[in-house]
């Protein structure tokens, strides 16, 4: 597995070794020992999620506060998305900064987003299937959102038209008033 550092050191871009021939391809999409070595600590996943979204759908920016913060290992198995992680840890030197990466079924990249980060993605292809592992269970009472187009964060989303967002995401607060990790 190739590990690429991002401009926020705790967020990692992972690229599996892919074996291809005339029959197709094979790759190991997850290996606990290799993953733990890549992120520098043991991580336990408890839930896998799978979403399918149409072009120009923007999901996020979502996170869960303690006692149920979620780390996520995300990947795309059909189509392409622009994936974003925002550091919301108050004590972090990178608090308020974001990183983005193009994830697709073709490039097979995965992004590790540890607890303490807001997460969102924008679908760039006609349709995308997005799969992710979580380090804690979904806890609606701990869920928080930040506006996807927050001026303080200034995320450079590759949006051509107004994105398709949920009612909940449309009502999300600005970054400066959203609750953050202590």
Automatic annotation (TrEMBL):
EC number: 5.1.3.13
Transmembrane segments: none
InterPro entries the UniProt entry points to: RmlC-like, RmlC-like_jellyroll, RmlC_Cupin_sf
Molecular-function GO terms, alphabetical: dTDP-4-dehydrorhamnose 3,5-epimerase activity
Reactions this protein catalyses: dTDP-4-dehydro-6-deoxy-alpha-D-glucose = dTDP-4-dehydro-beta-L-rhamnose
Pathway(s) where this gene product acts: Carbohydrate biosynthesis; dTDP-L-rhamnose biosynthesis
Keyword list, A-Z: Isomerase
Family: Belongs to the dTDP-4-dehydrorhamnose 3,5-epimerase family.
Subunit structure: Homodimer.
Protein name listed in UniProt: dTDP-4-dehydrorhamnose 3,5-epimerase
Upper taxonomic lineage: Bacteria, Pseudomonadati, Pseudomonadota, Gammaproteobacteria, Oceanospirillales
